[in-house]
Amino acid sequence: MRRLIGDILLPRATAIALWAWVAFNLALVGWVGIQSLKDSGEVWLDPFGLPKTLRWDNFSSAWQAAEFSAAAMNSVVLTLFGSAMIVAVSAPAAYVLARSSRRVAGHAINYFAIGLSIPIQTILVPIVVIKLSVYSFMEDWVTGWWDNRITLLVFQVALSVPFAVFVLTGYMRSLPHEIEEAAEIDGAGPLRAFIQVIVPVARPGLTTVLVLNVMGLWNETLLALLIAPLPEERNLPAALLGLYSSMQYSSDWGGMFAGIVILVYPMIVLYIWLGRRIVDGMTAGISR
Amino acid sequence: MKTYERAFWPFLLPALLVYTLLFVAPSLFGIWVGFTKWSGPGSEMTWRGLDNYVALLHNEVFTTAFTNTFVMATVGGILIFGSTFLAMVVLRQLKGRAFIRAVVFLPMVISIIAIGAAVGFLLNPEGAVNTVLEWIGLDPQPWLGPDMVFRCIVGGLVWSSTGFYVALMMSAADAIPTHVYEDAQLIGATKWEQFRHITLPLTWDVFAVAAVLWVVGSLKIFDIVLAFTTAGTAAAPPIPARTIAVQQYIVVKGAGLPDLGSAAAMGVMTLLVTAVLIVLTRRITRRDRVELS
Questions:
Q1: Any idea which of A74-78, A198-202, A215-219 has the lowest mean pLDDT?
Q2: Has domain B34-285 been given CATH number 3.40.1110.10?
Q3: CA nearest to A56, candidates A268, A261, A246
Q4: Nearest-neighbour CA in chain B from A40: distance (Å)
Q5: Closest approach of A6 to chain B, Cα-based (Å)
Q6: pLDDT tens digit string along B189-213?
């Protein structure tokens, strides 16, 4: 009996459930792609059939509706700049924190770790207040204009720094100490030594953190809705939400699925390309 | 002097300043706002002491959101870790395990808004799921109606988050040497017993961290509620489906003068609950470390 349950029934059932789960995930991703190529009538009436003709124009209509083109541009710029800035700010800090024997380094690591457990809700109201104040301050006194997307970028970076510093400190600790000696003999200044010696060696870890942040920023919703909600300044998730909530008036279902594909497929391509490393990076920083 | 000691402050300062000025200081300001009545820059700020908190505890909409968040954290957590443990029983030897782990993780990289839009399409009153139910002679259900949407959200949450914890726990399980399992097989331990007496004790430390991560993450649940309840309308999510984060967003973004003091108090309460739950989770998961000799 014990053998029947523990060795056969339970493992078999679990294995079947796991494969069903896999099939569901793959089917969902594929189905969204197929739906995006049907005309809106077919999407609705024949949701599991193949498209009769391939309606690539869904993508151009989604691109124009709900200002998806602007949103895509915003998402690309915010994601690339944001994740590059996060790594540029965090990597040097993580490096000295991992290496230094000063007592203050330990305190600083703990100080950054606090940021990991502060929920975003604690800082939500201040963010809105700062967004409004910065906007009117810059417009009235400094530049005469301001763009909320800059505020969004800055806060996305600030809120991601603790996690990046935390993970990279752990990673930098695992690097061999010999690498600095090469730099020291070279007589290079700290910044040059860092860029020319440390960064190339630490590249796998830096790439992982970069990609993790690309995915995080690309899918960012709450901050985007809060700081930059207008049609011309919002990012892709906010635009898709806008498109989705207008469906009952426009009924452009093919266009909506095209919008989903524009939001989802780039990340899936990135995941297929760098998958193993992403999973390792996400889990390694934590389990260490 | 070593390069990294010379460069200590110049290298550390940018990150330290960004984090302090744009994260820590605003958080402290948020705690301050929680004790006031305020509707934003330009309006008068008056001290209210603990009144915001008292008012919140008597506000039925907020207590519902609070309970919802708590239920999502506990029920969702039990389902997620239950599924993760089951997966761990078989994932060590199953054929195609690397593929399963990769695909199960997939929802983590997909925007939850996109998932909500796609799944919402299927769960619509006249959507595909109900059509299938009618074919096989069952009653169609109002999946995304106020009564059932909460359960659908928890389901969506479990589906989209479990892969991450499977990856996390399995990366710890990978480090267990195979000879331990071979010995266990020799004395006739079943797969379940191998999990129960080998895998679980040896990955318990990672589970303790994972549980804290889930608790912290679950208190921020926001996007998935919006994604599942927006279904064709621009209205605010129905009260039975709201979480604290959603409720706070509605107060901040709502029409008229926002009650920022109350919204900030919600943020502080989330912070406190997070702290309490972290301590509780740590205590529940605390055990003597098991190590292979």
A1: A198-202
A2: no
A3: A261
A4: 13
A5: 5
A6: 999 999 999 999 999 988 998 999 8
